[in-house]
Amino acid sequence: MLAQVVLGLATAVGGLAYGLFLGGFSRKMIARIHGRIGPPVTQNYVDLLKLFVKRTSIEHGTMFWLAPMFRITGGLGVLFLVPLIVGRVAVVNFSFAGDLLLVIYFMFFGCLGMALGAGNSGHPHAVMAVTRGLAQMSSYELSFSVVILILAAGLGTLSIDGIVAAQQGGIGHWNMVRYPFATLAAMIAFLGMMMAYPFSVVIAPQEIPIGPPTEYSSRFLSLMMAGRTVFGVAKLLLYMNLFFGGAANWVDFFVKTFLLYMYPIFVSTVFPRFRVEQSVRFFILVPTAIAAIDLIRIMVL
Known about the structure:
Layout: H1 2-33, H2 43-52, H3 62-81, H4 99-121, H5 124-155, H6 160-165, H7 175-178, H8 180-193, H9 218-243, H10 250-270, H11 276-300
Helix pairs in contact: 1-9, 1-10, 2-9, 3-4, 3-9, 4-5, 5-8, 5-11, 8-11, 9-10
């Protein structure tokens, strides 16, 4: 048990470090696309440590302070339930039968915690971003839930480890190939989960200066930054395991998660941002309809 706890802590620290690197790399790459030099790749590490040692005198109540903890707890919950490498007992973490349902709850838990905290601040920009974020989250969760239903019905399991095991044997066994429409719908929903353009309605600097973090500072902003970073890595691992066969070794792990992370970055540099009602309407109609094709195919066959 002690060894599992130690490995879990190593997973958390490693996930945070890897997520900070990906975030720093993406900032550098986007700056180059814009014709700027951009910050160094290590800037996210510096920002996190700098914010953590600062102090604040702002007081907005208990829920305001608990929100960053909710955020990072949700991210860690997802991260701990997703196996890292196929067949490696040491990095299976805390996965078990039916854990996919718990992962969905943890994803909602982190987002809801941030919403409750930012809403408690009373700042109009934060409250506006929370309203937008919850509306969009409800819309992309609809299509993602349909995708989960397809995987559970098609593979006969709600265990992430079982879903990964069913994809072994080559790329032809990946769920990306078995259920292409469900995968496409999930990849569209992934843009909303990562708050990438054209679905960046929560942190919209042109309208609501950085949304929920408006009132946060010092170590609380540091925890929120860490939570968002860990959440991002956890989602990369989840998608890698659900649709792309998991990782057979560490090379597979880094290549697949890196490519998955670059996908919303490239989309963000191409598309402008939707209005809130456009984003919600799109998620309710388009990816849900695409996923329904595979759902009907499973029901018929």
